[in-house]
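To whoever picks this up:

The parser on our side crashed when reading a file containing two proteins. I've narrowed it down to the boundary between the first structure block and the second sequence. Both blocks are reproduced below exactly, byte for byte. First block:
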Amino acid sequence: MADAARLRLFQLVSPALPVGGFSYSEGLEVLVQAGRLGDAAALRGWLEAELRRGAVAIEAAALAPLAAALRHWREAEGGEQAGDLERAAAGRRELVELDGWLLAQREAAELRAQQLQMGQSLLQLLTDLGWPLPGSGMPLAARAGSTRVQALAWPAAFAWAGLCLELASPALEQAYLYGWVANQISAAVRLVPLGPTDGQRLQLALAPLIAERAASLAAADPRDLWSGGVGAGLAQLQHAELYSRLFRS
């Protein structure tokens, strides 16, 4: 990877990225309050299971097809050749269908709201940086013609960021998984509580698995995968019922 691309990748996974990821625990808060996650070893086992069999793996596998759909939309949007309008519509349709399918994988309303909020925040940031979605002269809901794009969730927005920043697979999948793990560890540092050194130790320990899963998922079809994150889904559903909460999910 060229130096400039590597630096852009660092920016995408920086905790300074203003998308609000720090305010979500994705069910960790429920597990900690229930006594299920009380130390670094338990957290590591949970994160490893999610990287191998959770919804985050399906989302990472979807980044390449999402980016392909976005690329087709972008390239055909301003074209003057016959068929450009049809190709743009096909790209939008593929994008919307896969984005909606991924969002439907998230059982909890809080998680779906999180995905949409973070996605819209990233899209707004990219617009401010000079990379609006195709058809940026119109509101999001009007850009897709017959296919209404009212919002894009986090994976699709992340794929658009990768396309704008010229990041290729498997670096994009690595960044997605790394950022997810970093946010989960950040939440655990405040919830367990977990010392910051233990948090950094855990991030280092998970690096080989992140690289392994990114390489595998970059070549996978997300629709051929399955999620075994039943426990995560139940924890996320229970978050709204907590008496007191630090996080939004």
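<<boundary where parser fails>>
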Amino acid sequence: MTSNTAISEQAREILITNDRGGYTVPTAGLYPYQWNWDSAVAALGFAQFDVDRAWVEIETLFKGQWADGMVPHILFHKSDPGYFPGPDVWGCEGPIPSSGIIQPPIAATMARFVWEQDKGVGRERLAALYPKMVKWHNWIMRWRLHRGAVCTTHPWETGRDNAPDWDNTMARMDASDVGEYTRRDTAHVNSDDRPTKYDYDRYIKLVQMGRRLNWDQAAMLAESPFRVADPTMTFTTLRAARDLQVIGEALGEDTSGIAASIELLVTGAETLWNEELGGYDSRDVLSGEWAGCLSNASYLCWFAGVENAKMLARLRDVMTRVPYPVPSNDPNAESFDARRYWRGPTWAVVNLLIGIGLEDMGHKTEAKALADKTAGLIKEHGFAEYFDPMNGKAAGGGTFTWTAAVWLAWAGRD
């Protein structure tokens, strides 16, 4: 078997190869731009061997921040006809051509980790980023809360595009007038690994609505048929707030506002507990119904600093039952699909966040077991975008930036 040293060299090479000069693409072809949470994880990977380049990654991401504080989920630095929907479809007017939605706000958490690699060198750069990160946090707190939980207004925002969490909400949407369009993703990878046309029609419908409303948050709040309180957004926002508080205190800033938002988000996280499911779940805030889905995002509670004995028991169970955990959907669910994107596959990047949380909350045994299983998965099947949880086979794109970063920063550590 290939040595850890050799795999680490491959991982570094992937980051360097996917570097486009100040930002990193997730993988060539399939994802040719800068994605928000991918970029934050890439910074963590770079920090293991080039701290300056790690800071540049995050700084470039915030160059795309809108005047109101929002940081888009995609920055279109250069035109690429191989990707749809591009900037012409989104019709946004930020400082850099972009999408009109966000992604899980893990940039503050990753900025803290990069800073902790070298606090002396990083302090000035962290200080410059801090007000921008707080401004984004405040934007989320203003526009996305429901009973203290953080909502998504588009499946793409969560990063979990076609997760079963959204099925009931999307089923109520009429996308019959979405018109003709040509997908590009299925030209790069197996269509069995990607969302269906049914899902994609609804993704585009929501983009068209946002453009028609000029991405005005108040108008979208009033009109959008898609608003779901979600574990991914809630737990990552809560974790970001905790990290912003640590950063702010180290910089001598007043963090009372952040402390208040932490208290609100902790309360909101508990509104996502579905007692019947026995896990953290998504809920449609318009209909009030639960999604009824136990996903890998359900296990992000520890990442957010939220302890839950029932979730720990479920994690231990799934790590025993599933050869390559943590699956993105409960294998016992009717909606489980071992290869189709977020309907079953295991994602090393979510394992990273779960593992960080487990370790932070004192669950060292589970954290090490998950890191070891993720390392074995990468050693056996490479730096894929995601993996079949039953046989470990690679799926989606290859030579993937965040999988390489996961190896360098966590799974492949001695």
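After patching the parser it read the second block fine. The mean pLDDT is 96. The chain is about 50% helix and 5% strand.
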